Amino acid sequence: MLVGIVFWGLAVVAVAAGAAVFVVDSMARATYALALSFIAVGVQILLLGQSYLGIITILMMVMEMAVMAVYMVMFMGMNPALMPMDMTHGKKTAIGASAGVFVLLAAGALLVPWPERRGAPPEDLTRALGLEIMGEKMLVMAVVGPVMVATIVAGVVLAAHRTRYDRLGDDLRRRPADDPQPGGVGR
Amino acid sequence: MGLSGALARLAVRATRVLVVEVPGHWATRMEVEHQLLRRGWRPAWTPADADVLAVCGVPGPELSELVDRLWEQMPGPRVRADITSPGTVGSALDAAAALLLDTPHHRTDAQERAQEPEIPEDADHGGHGGMGHGGMDHGEMDHGEMDHGGHGGMDHSGHGGMDHGGMDHGEMDHGGHGGMDHSGHGGMDHGGMDHGEMDHGGHGGMDHSGHGGMDMAPGGIALAGGGEDRDGLEMDVLHLPLGPVLPFWPAGLVLRCSLQGDVVVDAEASVVDGAGAGGPGPGPAPAAVVWCDQVMALLALAGVEDAAACARRARDALLCGDEDAARDAVERLDRTVRRSWLLRSSLRGVLLLDRAGLERHGLPGHCRGDAHDRLLSRVERIRAEAGGTEPTPAEDGGVPWAVVPDLVTGLELASVRLAVASLDLDPHPAVQAVGHG
Amino acid sequence: MAESVVTTVPGGWAVLAGILLCGLAFFAVALDAALSARAQGTGGGWGAPLGRAARLLRQRRRSTVAADTLLWRIGGAGMLVGAFLMIAVIPLGEWTLADLDVGVVWFNTVDVMVWALVWLAGWGANSAHGLVGGYRFLAHGVAYELPLMFALVAPAIAAGSLSVGEVAAAQDGVWFVVWMPVAFLVFLVGVTGFSVWGPFAPALAADIGGGVLAELSGVDRLVLQAGRYLFLTAGAAFSVPLFLGGGAGPVLPGWAWVLVKSVLVLAVLVWLRRRIPLLRPDRFMEIGWVVLLPAAVLQDLVVSLVVVWKG
Amino acid sequence: MTLEAVLVVAAALFAVGLYGALSQQVVVMVMMGLELMINGVLLAAAGFWWFLAPDPSGQVLLLVVLAAMTVEMAMGFAVATLLHRRRQTDMTDMAEELSR
Questions:
Q1: Could A90 and D23 be called an inter-chain contact, meaning their C-beta atoms sit closer than 8 Å?
Q2: Which residue of A lies nearest to D37 if distances are taken between CA atoms?
Q3: CA distance A117 to chain D (A)
Q4: Which of B175, B228, B234 comes nearest D98 by C-beta?
């Protein structure tokens, strides 16, 4: 019972905060509304018995939204606290499409005869998950790792203005690198 | 009354004082700082944190206006102490402490004040980056001139009568054109607006609807323009004046910076109240005292509090002529500064000046090297001066404040502060100007 | 899952835990004030926390033009709340408030919240200096957080559990600090980082008039400052079960040892602040990624090898 | 708390996110919409896992979703930066990409 109330409370928070992302005027508020939505969902995942994933969701999303706020401020091109922002297009189509999708999904959720629960959760979920990804599903993690590294490299390459040749000279021998802001290690 | 009285007495023991030095009145300021610490009080960095506003010396018109504004920003309970000479510091602080305890007085004071923060009507905000000192935000003020979107540097503060309420720019097409479409707002009086500073080309349109109609923008906030930063990204330019009331900043110096992110892309220096309006000061300070003061500022900005405290003690000892204590303190300072490799790594490379750089800016030889080199050489000179054993090296002059903008352009804000503190700036330009005039 | 190594106490004890945390934080403030007074050559200072708190309680709150007050206040108050959330998983000897099976990750999550909170506190004031402070902190965060995460991994690997109680219990013979000193140091760097403390305080530094604190007065300032000290205290206390053997020690009972060790770590952190210059984000960024992160990863590798070798 | 309830909430989150992703003009706001959609997927996956087949292999799916979200975000930031850089040198290009 209590779990039910908490769940619905969190559900309201999650959806309302999610909607607030596209309603509020301020970029900071929009970003942190999304963070709030993620926190609510993270707690819901906790309620669904998956402590590790729930907490990791909150951790990652708060971090991501803190960074997201910076990008919002940089790129939104609108004053955060001063101006209402309405930078939308095709609003009506979007509302129609999303309402349709919601009806479809919700109807599916309610009408499909979901099968009975098979099996029971292991006692120590986190350990089980760890064994799983390091055992049978190791391939998944072995792929995810390099993908993450590739993301870091690709992201830097895409976003950076100067290349290593700009920094280190044509033969990559310039030391220390020619940076507008020197780092702390003094390479 | 008993509880609030006890609270007040307890609170007064931890009073924070915002010290404003009128150029030339270094002696009063140092005396105030000295006495603060003896009472267990501490200096405040911003008006928001201050209980007492201590004005050292008689400010000129420009600084007076500024001091009034600082006074407005203090949260209260607040007390203002005008201290004209070092001799009256003790009694002025005593009086301030007594007045701080007077709770009914502060209650009335609070009721009489405006409840909402606002930008003064007479402030000339349009002049950011230009002349008007009036609208200046010397950093601690609550005017928050930040703007993170792409907007023209326009200013609404002078237009109290303008009615923006009915405007709705919300539907504007921001994609294609940069500027705003004013034609749709026939009723609006743009007469007073400074469109000259607006950069309509480079960014995604501006929006006036925040004014009047929205609670977020009670008005008067100057918006930033865009410009290309050193990484080739378009970034907003923010105009932020540094000084004259800023912790560990040369008295009277105002550096109007254009910031992109926290990188100073352009700067302009001036001296508050021009030259000579500061009233008669006690004359130029002894060199060693000034150097100690500068070393203290640099160390405090670098964040080594123990070493900064050491420099302050050396300064106070030198000032009151206690030679033994001074020599001890200077020796300790010298040891601390020399030993700390963390300090070296922190100051290394800050405003590196080679011979060519010195010549280009017309700087004296002792400015050579980076901030750490200058720190060491200055401590060395203090030692020579305080010890009195070695002959004082020939003094080849300080750094004129006018070169500061050239030196700091392109640096990031923290480095700017360290760079300025590391230079032997003519400490009291007003006084010197009078002297030469 | 094996029998839990710690006893979970009823929620009412949270009050006591809160009081203990506040007491330790009070000690940190007093120690800092005393050290400061000594450096200035004035003596005294131990009573300063009371005076400072009273002053801020008496001071009026203020607002600024076009402040985002909601976010501003969340930033300040969140710091206060976060520290209390953090200590929920720290076992005091054999008792704990919440024996979370992922306690270490919980700690990490709460410390990541600080990113958001400090930035919000800087942003909300709508002041240039506050905002510069907020961004400085984020830049620091990017540099200290990953090393901190990898440092947290080391004890967890050695103990084979993410539960704080079990990590403490796993240090029966040798404290983890002995054979994972790098992780311990990186952890302390992280603690000072998320407390915006000492070398990691450029966000609150004098050069920008106090940065995030520049516009705060009265109780808002008190809340944020107290939050920082509480976070510092909670971080120091967390190092005890993680690296310093938890309640292990002769003569005294477990809870007393936890407190003693926490106080010691806290005192060291407070004392170090006065000696170490500010690590400006532009400098520390490279140190964090080029030095600390590889060091922490290597430490993890060593720990893993030892664990595998021991079977 | 039933599977249906979880799925309805997840659907609502997904729909709100879809609205954002479709209607917003600015890259970062579109990303926010996508994030919200993935948020819904995450919740739905967690619900399925708990109510249908609570064995550890299902959790791996959630981990993968989380990882996908991170990668999406990081690449989104990089692309946004790139676009922003391009916008100055080539404004109409950008306008075309961003306007309706």
A1: yes
A2: A18
A3: 4
A4: B175
Contacts of A102 in chain D (CB under 8 A): 11-12, 14-15
pTM: 0.86
Please list every residue in chain A whose beta carbon sits closer than 8 Å to the beta carbon of residue D18. 94, 97-98, 101
| Cβ pairs bridging B and D (under 8 Å) | 22
Tell me how far apart the alpha carbons of residues B27 and C171 are, in angstroms, rounded to a whole number: 59
Q: Where are the domains of chain A?
A: 1-78, 124-181
Chains A and C touch (3+ CB pairs under 8 A): yes
Largest CA distance in chain A: 69
* pLDDT of residue B184 exceeding 50: no
Residue B127 one-letter amino acid: G
> Cβ contact (<8 Å) for A183 and C290?
yes
Domains present along chain B, CATH in parentheses: 2-112 (3.40.50.12280), 287-436 (no CATH)
pLDDT at B335: 92
Give the confidence band of B187 by pLDDT, cuts at 50, 70, 90: very low
pLDDT of C125-176, one tens digit each? 888 899 999 999 999 999 999 999 999 999 999 998 888 999 999 988 889 9
CB contact under 8 Å between A185 and C135, yes or no, is no
Among B233, B235, B236, B260, pick the best mutation site for testing chain D contact (most D Cβ within 10 A): B233
B271 three-state secondary structure:
strand
Alpha-carbon distances, residue B270 vs B46, B129, B254, B364, B389 (angstroms)? 21, 12, 5, 21, 39
Residue extents of the structural domains in chain C = 10-310
Q: Give residue-wise pLDDT tens across range A134-164.
A: 777 778 878 888 888 898 888 888 888 778 8
Q: Spell out the long-range contacts of B9-13 with Cβ–Cβ below 8 A and sequence spacing 24 or more.
A: B9/B101, B10/C50, B10/C51, B10/C54, B10/C55, B11/B51, B11/B100, B11/C51, B11/C54, B11/C55, B11/C57, B11/C58, B11/C59, B12/B97, B12/B100, B12/B101, B12/C51, B12/C55, B13/B40, B13/C47, B13/C48, B13/C51
Averaged pLDDT, C190-208:
92
Chain C residues whose beta carbon lies within 8 Å of the beta carbon of residue B142:
62-65, 67, 125-127, 215
> By CA distance, what is C67's nearest residue in A?
A81
- Please write down the HEC assignment for all residues of chain C: CCCCCCEECCHHHHHHHHHHHHHHHHHHHHHHHHHHHHHHCCCCCCCHHHHHHHHHHHCCCCCCCCCCHHHHHHHHHHHHHHHHHHHCCCCECCEECCCCCCHHHHHHHHHHHHHHHHHHHHHHCCCHHHHHHHHHHHHHHHHHHHHHHHHHHHHHHHHCCCCHHHHHHCCCCCCHHHHCHHHHHHHHHHHHHHCCCHHHCHHHCHHHCCHHHCCCCHHHHHHHHHHHHHHHHHHHHHHHHHHCCCCCCCCCCHHHHHHHHHHHHHHHHHHHHCCCCCCCHHHHHHHHHHHHHHHHHHHHHHHHHHHHHHC
Of A45, A118, A128, the CB nearest to D46: A45
Which of A79, A163, A167, A187 is most worth mutating to test chain B (most B CB atoms within 10 A of its CB)? A79
Select from B119, B147, B148 the residue whose CB has the most chain A CBs within 10 Å, as the one to mutate to test that interface.
Answer: B148
CA distances to A184, B141, D19, D65, D72 from D33, in Å? 38, 37, 7, 16, 12
How many CB atoms neighbour CB B368 within 10 A? 16
* B345-366 burial code (b ≥16 CB/10 A, e <16): bbbbbbbebeeeebeebebeeb
Domains of chain D, CATH where assigned: 3-98 (1.10.287.3510)
> Which residues in A lie closer than 8 A to residue B214 (C-beta atoms)?
25, 82-84
